[in-house]
Amino acid sequence: MKRVQFGHSPVPYLFVAPQIIIIAIFFLWPAAQAVHQSFLLEDAFGMSSQFVWFRNFEDVLSSPSWLKSAGFTVVFSVLVAVLSIAISLFLAVRADEIIRGAKVYKTLLMWGYAVAPPVAGLLGIMMFNPLMGDLYILLNRIGLDFNHIQNGNDATFVVVLIAVWKQVSVNFIFFLSGLQGIPKSVTEAATLDCKSAERRFWTITFPLLAPTTFFLMVINLTYAFFETFGIIDVSTKGAPGGATATLVYKVYVDGFLGADMGGSSAQSVLLMIMVSILTVFQFRFIERKVHY
Amino acid sequence: MFRKTLMAAAALFAMANTASAATEITWWHAMDGALGDVVNHIADDFNNSQSEYKVVPINKGGYEDTMTAGIAAFRAKNQPNIIQIFDAGAATIINAKGAVYPVQDLLEKYGSKFDINDYIPGVRYFYADSAGKMIGMPFNSSTPLLYFNKDALAKAGIQNPPKTWQEFEEMAPKLKEAGYEGLAESHSPWIFFENFMSRHNLQMATANNGYDSTDVELLYNNEDLKNHWKKMKEWKDAGYFGYYGRAWGANQDAFLQQKAAMWLGSSGSFGGLRKSATFDFGTSTLPYWKGVGDAPKSTFIGGASLFAFSGHSDEENKGVAAFFEFLTKPETQYYWHKETGYVPITTAAYDLAKKDGYYKESPDAEVGIQQLSEEGGKWTKGYRLGFYVQIREVIYSEVDKMMNGEETVDQAFDVIETEGNKLLKRFHDTYSN
């Protein structure tokens, strides 16, 4: 029989080596360090350290502020992922239907993508400034008694709004290209078979977009978990009363600001475990429903 | 083209040559913007005053970023000579045994002389150990002040700003009638926790405010401080106190936009406010409760100090000592004080400012240093508490909850006590072996 493989040439390994090295240096090694650190009580300058088994984890898991923050992270992530996917899907469908001036709409909707999270946070918090923020004044003028500086739910609304706004454009780009990838013949056939645009969307278009949606769900959850840090830091710093502190933000406060190496390492290990479970869950249970 | 390259190379060589002639002293600091310019100016003055050493100041971001950068550099054995560490981070660096070269030892070994009594009372022991040895060099020291809007007070028919909280309570309704909130306040942990204790000469933590040991517990959960916060809540509900959350700037803005007639902030804000306020304002000392503790006593300082990292050559340490001596010179301190609003840290510098007539032309600039020079008490020297950055986070969070009514004052202080002490215990277990 003819050999179809190239044999054991080292060349392919050479090609992937840069990637592997980068992953090893920038992910595997720090992750291993974090796991190691999470079992130690060590002073910030590394002058003394002791092995304490699970003390750091016990301290973290018994801390009311960490538990509160964990709860908020779950709520926040689900809200951000669901809302930003739903809104951008709606916008993408609408923009796809437009024939005249479509380019302008599309460009405008993509603009937000260029905004860095801390800048988005800054924009948001300026709009919600109690002394001069337009949205703050508007919400109060329509009689909502809105105050995100004192009310935890209002503060959650603000950070979710900023995070969603920032993410909508990314999702929009993916959905739009997904929509444009649907063959014209399929949509035309569907138009003949079914008059209701809404039913057509749910039975034909959306299932065809399912792989994109699944991909975006994974991306958006990761975004909500990790990349919203800049937004939180600039807009609320976790206030009021820790109501908007995500887990990543807490890791930053304890590790980066507070120099508690062991405690923040334990927190990041817990975070790693949570995200691993989430990933397994997504791929085992949700991906099954996706047809490529 | 070739000639250009050659010339550039020659210039580079010449520069490298002069640089290697002088011993380089690196200084990592957190002063950016206008403050950073003043820092650079001081470093240039020092470099021009002699040829043996060259101080290179590098801005590393905010206080926390600078500390983290220093920690990372130290762990990588690549630490700068001098690092600026803020008040809440002092315990972390001082308790890491051997990480720093105590400034008193450094000056006594390499400098000409050192006398702790040259420094004004408020800064003398804040960065010292329990035996009174100065570990960090006080640099940018500030203290909380009351800023007041003169027009607003006049409109309400008030002559003078309040000296005590009792007086404030009387004038707040008048201010409200005139259309103002009486007070806004920035940085609750610093002003209404730490400085509250100092102003009233109350003990803040066991073990001599934390100086004697890391085995320490907070004493915040006391009736005096709780009563103060009960009043704050009452005043907030009555519209006498405007609470704009934890952000420093938001509360300052309330004052700048003339919503609040008075604002509690830092003496270090003086220069900036003078530029941005569109109305006439004055400064006064931090009010106190008559009858609580033995107020009024001097307040704590805020801001930061400079630490000399260990692990450098004799030659470099000598340069650090020379630079520290330059920094404490009355002329340098007077310049720094005038440009930034931070207080002069030595009595000689204070005297120079007085002699120069600075306070005649700008009397409000003197209030901070007067307050720090007020009579001290047993508990006004300072505090030394580990993981204090996180303890401040707990305080911020609990103040939010007190103000929005999510928790009562008593509940909030119970949380501050248990969470704070848990953090102190962790710090003790980390640093005591």
Automatic annotation (TrEMBL), chain A:
What the entry lists under Pfam families is as follows:
BPD_transp_1
Keywords of this entry: Cell inner membrane, Cell membrane, Membrane, Transmembrane, Transmembrane helix, Transport
Report how it sits in the membrane. Answer: Multi-pass membrane protein
- UniProt xrefs under PROSITE patterns: ABC_TM1 (PS50928)
Compartment(s): Cell inner membrane; Cell membrane
Q: Where are the transmembrane segments?
A: 12-32, 70-93, 105-128, 155-179, 200-226, 266-286
Q: Name one GO cellular component term.
A: plasma membrane
Share an example GO biological-process annotation for this protein: transmembrane transport
Q: Where is the ABC transmembrane type-1 domain?
A: 74-282
Say where the protein is mainly found. Answer: membrane
Q: Does the keyword Glycosyltransferase apply?
A: no
Among InterPro entries, the record links this protein to:
MetI-like (IPR000515), MetI-like_sf (IPR035906), UgpAE/MalFG_permease (IPR050809)
Subunit-level organization:
The complex is composed of two ATP-binding proteins (UgpC), two transmembrane proteins (UgpA and UgpE) and a solute-binding protein (UgpB).
Q: Which family does it belong to?
A: Belongs to the binding-protein-dependent transport system permease family.
Tell me, in a sentence or two, what this protein's role is.
Part of the ABC transporter complex UgpBAEC involved in sn-glycerol-3-phosphate (G3P) import. Probably responsible for the translocation of the substrate across the membrane.
Full protein name: sn-glycerol-3-phosphate transport system permease protein UgpA
From what organism does this protein derive? Thalassospira marina
Automatic annotation (TrEMBL), chain B:
- Give the CDD domains listed for this entry: PBP2_UgpB
Q: Which InterPro entries does the entry mention?
A: Bact_solute-bd_prot1 (IPR050490), SBP (IPR006059)
Q: Where is the signal peptide?
A: 1-21
Q: Where in the cell is it found?
A: Periplasm
Q: Does the keyword tRNA-binding apply?
A: no
The record's keywords, sorted A to Z, are:
Signal, Transport
- Mostly located where? periplasm
- One Gene Ontology cellular component: periplasmic space
Q: Which Pfam families match?
A: SBP_bac_8
Q: Which domain of life is it from?
A: Bacteria
Its subunit composition reads: The complex is composed of two ATP-binding proteins (UgpC), two transmembrane proteins (UgpA and UgpE) and a solute-binding protein (UgpB).
Instruction: Tell me which PANTHER family the record gives.
Output: ARABINOSE-BINDING PROTEIN-RELATED, SN-GLYCEROL-3-PHOSPHATE-BINDING PERIPLASMIC PROTEIN UGPB
The similarity comment for this entry is: Belongs to the bacterial solute-binding protein 1 family.
Biological role: Part of the ABC transporter complex UgpBAEC involved in sn-glycerol-3-phosphate (G3P) import. Binds G3P.
Q: What is this protein called?
A: sn-glycerol-3-phosphate-binding periplasmic protein UgpB
From which organism does this entry originate?
Answer: Thalassospira marina
